[in-house]
Automatic annotation (TrEMBL):
Originating species: Streptomyces flaveus
Pfam families: HbpS-like
Protein name: Heme-binding protein
InterPro entries: GlcG_carb_metab_protein (IPR052517), PduO/GlcC-like (IPR005624), PduO/GlcC-like_sf (IPR038084)
Coiled-coil parts of chain: none
Amino acid sequence: MREPLSYEIAHGAALAALEAGRAEGHKVCAVVVNRSGVTKVLLSDDGVGLLGVETARRKAYTSAVSGVPTAKFAAFAASPQMQVAPPHLVDANLLPVAGGVPIVTADGEVIGAIGVGGADDVTDDRIAHQARDSVAKIVA
């Protein structure tokens, strides 16, 4: 097992998300969690409301505990098989909305995740992927 997600990696990913959002004219919140879904870093631009902060946290949590991007989790949650047990009834912290991506080592181990909130889900998802990619070499 690898070292857990370091503060430096978590902070770097969150900062990269804010910078990517700013470059596109968006104010966002980025939350990075460890593999268990516990918050390591939360960075938020001025003007991001509580909804943006909370959705970022829940997207990061969902991606970390499921091990997949939240866009993929959302598709699974919408499938007919899941109508019997919707994710929010299993775990109220799960949020099947795009904008969360796992942080994975080169050998496939999930060590955490980043969630972005504050813009629309497509934008949040793109920014989360950019932020995760910005720390990929460090994580490998």
